[in-house]
Amino acid sequence: MVRLVVFIWLAAAALVGVTGALRQAPMPPPAIAIGLTIVALAVIRLSPAARDAVRQLGPGPLVLFHVVRVAAGAYFLVLGARGVLPREFTTFAGWGDITVGVAAIWVLLRCLPVRTPWQRWA
Question: How many CB atoms lie within 10 A of CB 76?
């Protein structure tokens, strides 16, 4: 179930990106992202079935999903260097995504599976 939701989420993101739908959005993209995150967290909190599905999946795949951000961040930096996107955006977004992706690798290698209180905290 969770994998299906993640796949649908990625497909929707790709569709929005290809069509340029965010250009006509009534809210700025960060507000949309925050809203979608709140909705996802609310569904997990309020739906026992969703909560059980996430628990069965475990943290590994949810953390591993963020490793792809290394490539996305590098691509942002390339687009900024080419002048396709503003550097004010691509520098922070690119390095931020790279940092999160590398941190996800670290979490996968050092913190999963969770066996100690330190690993749980990390």
Answer: 24
